[in-house]
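Handoff note, outgoing to incoming analyst
You'll be picking up this chain. Sequence as last confirmed:
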Amino acid sequence: MYYSCPVNNQGRAIRKTGAAKNLYSGAKMNAQPATQIVNFRRTSDSRASVKKTQTEELVIALCGPIGSPIKRVGQEIAEILSHEYGYDVEVIRLSEFLSRKVPEVFNATVDESSEFKRINSLIELGNKFRGQYGERVLAELAIYEIIFDRIAATDANKPPQSRRKCYIIDSIKNNHELEIFRLVYSEIMFFIGVFSSPEQRAQNLEAMGMTSTEVYTLIDRDSGEEIAHGQTVSDTFPKADFFIRVEDNSADEIKQKVGRFASLLFEGSVVTPHMNEAAMYAAWSAASNSACLSRQVGAAIADAHGHILSVGWNDVPKFGGGLYLSDDTKDKRCWNNGEKCYNDHEKTELAKLISGELIKSGFVEKSKKSELIENIKNNSRLKGLIEFSRAVHAEMHAIINAGYIAGSKIAGASLFCTTYPCHSCARHIIAAGIKDIYYIEPYRKSLATKLHSDALTENSSDLKKVRILAYEGVAPRCFLELFEMGSTKRKESGKLIKTQKSKRKPRHEKSLEALYKLEAMVTQSLKEQGLVKSSEGDEDEK
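Most recent structure output, in case you need it:
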């Protein structure tokens, strides 16, 4: 047996069914001679054998900035999957592990005296818990629960069976948690980003009895902390597979958006992209042209009808117009011309110049020069400088490209960019007459709204300024995966095939053989650290 099953307080059910013993009854094949394995393959349908091990299970993880209606979206997902698609749904709240485990290991409890103190203490305890047991520990505990739920439902006399079961994870707070869920569940895991406008989120928190100061203290802290085991929601959120914006907080709004997401998970639905989804996919595709050493950024400009007017990406301009491409015989982009980032190089030179002046003036000892240079380089204002880059930014490139197209008019159009625009691009976007900007990844260095508050806004209801809005819909990274028809048929005898939602198969399935193996590998550290014990439940059996 190559899987050693951990045991918790559900151990009684596991031992009584004997399921744990039989999970890998086929594992003995690994010990057979090679000739026997070859003979086995010749006499069996290998594809059918693998298909029998697949499960219809789903894992849906949620993430969103504090104040967003994550819980309500999770409840609506559970409602739709349960009532329409015939799924058994279980919500796993990562914060509940803190209430259970923290008192055991730290002799501390959550402060329930006010909503602000409750949330703030959960963040504190979460950071302490992750600092002690690793950044992924809450995710590992969730995976541990999934293992036992599945094992407890397994008949000892039968091999593991596919289940229409969905686990909703509420909610992921950092990249480490997301990474481990994706490594284990990959094809059957979907990550949803839930958000509202900053104004709406503040109102939601104030409705819980918080003061304005408390609200923005939590918003800042939740967004991103400067510790490896802290919360980094603003960095994790953009990696979602599907983004849901909730503005008016109505039940109908949430149901409609969650319903569309659910339909994309199953075969038998005919769902095509919205205009904004197609435009953001064009921007994301354009980004792959970039050879920038910092990051790849793509942009697309679309008119009111969704027609793509132009695309752009960030890279070095060449004589005669346009940017260098791989087709060019003399590629003078930074990776091939100096093999360095010129923006970083010039900032280092600036730091050296400043340190030299400080030493010359007698403010700093010469022996401290190296340390001083590093301190200056790491100053947030200096690190944020973008003026020395050789690259044309994606937004500017898209605007320039629109100028090449005869009759192209971008005034009143929308710009879609994979990253929030910098302040340099912002002024060109305003001057071009673009009315809306949609982005996925945040860009903390940007001073766009600070320098151009007269013309730019993040308020979705302000139609008298250029609006900078977080993107909603299918993430471009999942565009083909969720919109391609694939191998399923849509018609039979010339007519649309209609399948009841409760009988529709998920687009992707995963082998239970692989799941058990991966889950066991991930959760082994919990036992080693004493967070779970293989002997739990023994006393109840006596």
